[in-house]
Amino acid sequence: MSKQNSPLVLGTERISKLLTQYAIPAIIAMTASSLYNMADSIFIGHGVGPLAISGLALTFPLMNLVTSWKDIYPDSRLKDISVVFDNPNSSTVRFATDSICGGKSLSTTNVKALRTNQQVINYVAQTPDAIGVIGVNWLGNRSDTTNLSFRDEVRVMSVSAEDIATPENSYKPYQAYLYYGDYPLARPIYILLNDPRSTLPWGFASFLTSDRGQRIILKSGLVPATQPVRIVSVKDE
């Protein structure tokens, strides 16, 4: 082993030479990575919108090679992070591709899709390493009439739109946070009709916008368009 490649050189060589040899390449690499992220943010912000910036902030740790739970918490007993979607052709996958990844394809490493939302819940409940991505209406506790709690089988993750996430700027998909726009990974739902008026599709759309239809949407955990949302301060134990 040459003297230059020997680990003893770190304890015997001059500090100025070590800084030149090791620090400068690291600074250049970090600067290039930061410029790459800035360019991505500018392009995605102008091309897609602020929602994509939130998704970029959410996925930025993965760009820095965070693929294991130990990269986040060194004492963790969990292994590699795996991300699970409900279906390869679902709207959730399209939302992740279009609005979070800026049109780029999802990674095939530790990312997969099952067939149904319930399968995702069952998989995450049985696989501690996994993160599931599904609609919030599948996460609500059916026995809770206030819609202020989630299912017991899984733990719902808080998400932040900031570059540095803290408990104060991170939010779970409660209806109030969806209503105010605090939870960043939200999207509107549209009904597009091309049938003549007074046909069955128009009747169904009228029912959805009625008081009864909006209450059904409210009960499902989503945010209705015309019904008021109950705002309750929730503090996790």
Give the termini separation: 56 Å
Percentage of helical residues?
40-55%
| Shape descriptor | elongated
Strand content: 5-15%
Number of E strands: 5
Please mark out the parts with pLDDT under 50 across 5 or more consecutive residues, or reply none: 1-7
Main sheet properties: 3 strands, parallel
**How big is the Rg?**
23 Å
What is the ordering of alpha helices and beta strands?
HHHHEHEHEEEHHH
Strand order in space, largest sheet: 2-1-3
In round numbers, the mean pLDDT is 78
By DSSP (H or I, 4+ residues per run), the number of helices equals 9
Describe the SSE topology.
Blueprint: H1 9-12, H2 15-47, H3 50-63, H4 69-72, E1 82-85, H5 91-100, E2 111-113, H6 117-126, E3 130-133, E4 159-160, E5 170-171, H7 175-180, H8 200-209, H9 211-219
Parallel strand pairs: 1-2, 1-3
Antiparallel strand pairs: 4-5
Helix pairs in contact: 2-3, 3-5
Structure write-up:
With 237 residues, the protein is mainly alpha-helical. Helix content is 42%, strand content 6%. It is built from nine helices and five strands; from the N terminus they run ααααβαβαβββααα. The chain has helices at 9-12, 15-47, 50-63, 69-72, 91-100, 117-126, 175-180, 200-209, 211-219; strands at residues 82-85, 111-113, 130-133, 159-160, 170-171. The strands form two sheets. A three-stranded parallel sheet has the order 2-1-3, covered by helices on one side. Strands 4-5 form a two-stranded antiparallel sheet. Strand 1 (82-85), helix 5 and strand 2 form a beta-alpha-beta unit. The radius of gyration is 23 Å and the shape is elongated. The protein starts with 8 loop residues before the first helix and ends in an 18-residue tail after the last helix. The relative contact order is 0.08. The model is unreliable at 1-7 (pLDDT under 50).
